[in-house]
Each structure stands twice: as C-alpha cells, then as structure tokens.
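A.,

Following up on our hallway conversation. Structure tokens first:
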C-alpha cells in the first residue's frame, strides 16, 4: 500500500514528536538508553501506525500481530508509542525508571499493556518470536510476528540458532527487523566484533533479506509488504539507521548509548529535534 504524501508528512511529524518525548523522558529520569531509542523511531512508527494489525482498544485480541522489542533497552520508544496509542497514561512517561513506576528501563509484560515479552538479556527475542510464529502456524492463525533486533545483539550465538530454527519450520509469518546503526555500547560493531555480511549470512540460513533506509517510512512500508508477501520462509529487513538520529552531537556516537542528558545538552537536543512532547 502506497502512503499518500499527506500521511507521510503526518507520520514524520509523529516521529519527530516521539523523539522529543524520548529525550524528555530520559532527561527527566536522569538515565536511559538514548542512542538506540532514537534510531528505531521510524521503524516503530511504521509498524504500529501503518503495518501491524493491532487495536489499542483490545491489546490482547488473539488475532493481533505480535511485536517483540528484543533490543529491550530501546524501550522508551515503545513506551512513547504505546502512550500515543492510549495504552499508557501520558502522566506516566516522566516516571521512567523511577522506583515504583510501571515504566522500567527494560520492558515488563506483566506491568505494561501492549508489551508481548519482557526483555533484558540480548538475543532472546528472536527465539520468542519464533515460538509465537510457530504457534500461529500450528493453530492455523493468521497473525504475523515482528522482532526488532540491534546489530550488537547479532553477536549473540542464540540469534543464529534461532535463524536456523525459523528456516526449518518455514515461518513465513515471522519478520525480523535489524536496527542497523552500526554502533553498540563500547564502540562501533566493526571494532568490537565485526558482523560481516549480515544479509548474506541470513540468506545462507534460508531467510529472505531486504535492505532499506530505516528512517524512510515509505521504504520501510515497501520492505514490510515484501516480507509479508514472501511465502517460502522468514524475512529480515536490514534497516540502515543512525544511532542518536536527530541530534547532531549524539549521532553515531557510542558515548550516547546510555547516559544522563545534562541540561545544556538537553536544551540543544530539543531545539534540534523540534516537535512537541506527548508526556504530561
């Protein structure tokens, strides 16, 4: 489905507002994972507002599409989206990472409606997504499962065990998305543990591989539609992104993987991002 120019403008504005909200949440919390939260904004915006079969009025609908944030430290983006959809009160957003808050530093499915899987240790989300996709296949259900991965996360061996399993069961109802910003906690992925040819690796495991600009909503939509129409097995979308997207002094910097945003930096970041906050 091709989006109208008007809808693309609207979705870009929502993405801008989500970035503003994420910055406010993490600044108020005094800690949080900012770089990877900013890099996956358009991915989550496109999934929730255009692609997924997900009704926020009925978040436990058995027929809903499933979304797993395997790179769970980027949960401020998911919280901001779920709040935009009305599942989290806006007044809760500025309680991020506070004692007693439902919004902790990693997603907790027991406390936040709309979260399919609690996350923390990296690498687990793809296996969980395979379980959900396999359940749909066995039960002859039509829902699709989406799993968002980080590229540092691909250094975990369990990812490649999962990749073999998804192909074995020909899970054409499973789409992984790689937030391919090239940077992890301690530096560039190429410095820490080179990933090599990611698309070729997944292809050798029997996956359809797609590549797009992860900040371009039209390109993301095209990739999601190609993944959904692929009937032979699982798909992965390698979404090229920028860590810290939207804030000049954060972009591409591992030092902004997770840290406090001081007042001066916060003011500059908000000025650069623009938009409005969804928090109250």
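Then the amino acids I'd put at each of the 280 positions:
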């Amino acid at each position: 489905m091709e989006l109208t120019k008007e809808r693309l403008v609207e979705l870009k504005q929502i993405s801008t507002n989500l970035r503003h909200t994420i910055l406010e949440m993490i600044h108020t919390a005094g800690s949080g994972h900012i770089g990877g939260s900013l890099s996956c904004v358009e991915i989550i915006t496109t999934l929730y507002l255009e692609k997924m079969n997900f009704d926020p009025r009925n978040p436990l609908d058995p027929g809903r599409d499933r979304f797993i944030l395997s790179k769970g430290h980027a949960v401020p983006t998911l919280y901001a989206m779920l709040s935009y959809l009305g599942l989290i009160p806006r007044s809760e957003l500025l309680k991020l990472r506070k004692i007693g808050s439902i919004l902790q530093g990693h997603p907790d499915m027991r406390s936040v409606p709309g979260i399919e899987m609690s996350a923390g240790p990296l690498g687990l989300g793809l296996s969980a997504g395979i379980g959900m996709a396999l359940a749909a296949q066995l039960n002859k259900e039509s829902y699709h499962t989406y799993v968002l991965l980080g590229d540092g996360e691909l250094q975990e061996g369990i990812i490649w065990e999962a990749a073999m399993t998804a192909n074995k069961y020909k899970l054409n109802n499973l789409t992984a998305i790689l937030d391919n910003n090239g940077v992890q906690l301690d530096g560039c992925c190429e410095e820490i543990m080179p990933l090599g040819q990611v698309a070729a690796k997944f292809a050798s495991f029997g996956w359809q591989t797609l590549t797009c600009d992860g900040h371009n909503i039209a390109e993301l939509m095209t990739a999601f539609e190609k993944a959904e129409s692929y009937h032979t097995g699982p798909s992965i979308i390698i979404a090229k992104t920028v860590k810290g997207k939207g804030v000049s002094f954060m972009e591409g910097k591992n030092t902004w993987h997770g840290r406090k945003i001081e007042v001066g930096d916060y003011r500059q970041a908000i000025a650069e991002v623009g938009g409005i906050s969804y928090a109250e």
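The CA atoms of residues 187 and 254 lie 5 Å apart. Curious whether your intuition agrees with the design.

B.
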